[in-house]
Amino acid sequence: MFSFLDTRSLASVGSVCRSWNSAASDNMLWQLQYALLFGKADNCCENKDKFGQHASDQADEFSCKKKGGVGPVMDVDWREAFKRTYIGNSPRRSTSNWGYCVHCKSIIWLSSMNCTSLHHHTTKDENRPWKVKPLSVHQVVDYLLGDPLSDMSSSDSDSDSDGAPFAEQRLPKLWAYSRHIGNSKKPFLYM
Amino acid sequence: MASTSNSTSSKIITLRSSDGEVFEVEESVALESNLIRRMMEDDCANNIIPLPNVTAPIFYLVIEHCKKHAEMKDNKEKKKELRSQGEELLKSDPHTYSNLMEAVNYLDIKSLMDLTAQWLADFLKGKSPRLIRELLKIKNDFTPEEEAEILERNRWAFD
């Protein structure tokens, strides 16, 4: 029955009683959740290319393990793997990503690589998605600081203690976001 | 004694619920249960088959569902009927519904298991642990510390 539940409900029913908690902690359940939300670990590299989605580095590790047959699949703590990927890649966050548009050389918001509503030229070139490259948060921050603010950030960042507060003033949300992501093991690799 | 048979051509299987009530069920219906099927295959079912984990009212519901499910294979109306009946029971008496599901699980009726589980899962979606306990009459056997720890451990899913 638990296999029909969504992530939140699954986490919720785990708090009902002991037996439900152990049932809701079942490794297979979380593997299923992982496959449903992020694609099968076996295909996660493929998904990454196809949809521009990113699974966590850990998931890549898992799939390599699985492919190479080095470690048995049961060794994987799928709940933990799901949690890591979910935190870094929750639908709320991944539906709005940044992308670099080759055409107008600027950063745009995109939804699952189809920025049809945002950019006229991409609607014409839907078959050539490389015109919009997805970017990591760090790349966006670099772009924003490096391009329009290059003169200030390069001179101020190390010597002046005002460097960081300045950036925070300008881009409070971006910085908060990038730090949050930075807490997970590695920055995400989109490309 | 509750008889659910209305056909003379089919073989009748006799089953006894945990509270001692005896049911006569058509073989085709009884065989929906993999548990009963295995018992019959192993020849443990010459006389009355005991079902120690299922009470009479629940078993009656199971049979009813089984029959409807057998009929619904080629009948959309029956399918609707079964669904609305299931949903009604779920709304009016979720506790009995969860007992029905447990019985279906115990009797190993695969077809019904998927259906009832899907409905119960839909019903539980978005409900708090406290409400679920209340509706399904489940006792909270966590200590307050354990409960707090589990809530903390699951917090990432709700952030």
Automatic annotation (TrEMBL), chain A:
Source species of the chain: Cinnamomum micranthum f. kanehirae
Name of the protein in its database record: F-box protein
Gene3D superfamilies: 1.20.1280.50
Domain F-box stretches: 2-31
Top-level taxon of origin: Eukaryota
SUPFAM superfamilies documented for this protein: F-box domain (SSF81383)
One Pfam family named in its UniProt record: F-box-like
From TrEMBL, chain B:
This protein's pathway: Protein modification; protein ubiquitination
SUPFAM superfamilies from the UniProt entry: POZ domain (SSF54695), Skp1 dimerisation domain-like (SSF81382)
Keywords: Ubl conjugation pathway
Source organism, top-level taxon: Eukaryota
Gene Ontology biological-process entries: jasmonic acid mediated signaling pathway; protein ubiquitination; ubiquitin-dependent protein catabolic process
SMART domains reported for this sequence: Skp1 (SM00512)
Domain SKP1 component dimerisation: 110-157
One Pfam family, short name: Skp1
Quaternary structure annotation from Swiss-Prot or TrEMBL: Part of a SCF (SKP1-cullin-F-box) protein ligase complex.
Role, per record: Involved in ubiquitination and subsequent proteasomal degradation of target proteins. Together with CUL1, RBX1 and a F-box protein, it forms a SCF E3 ubiquitin ligase complex. The functional specificity of this complex depends on the type of F-box protein. In the SCF complex, it serves as an adapter that links the F-box protein to CUL1.
The name this protein goes by in its record: SKP1-like protein
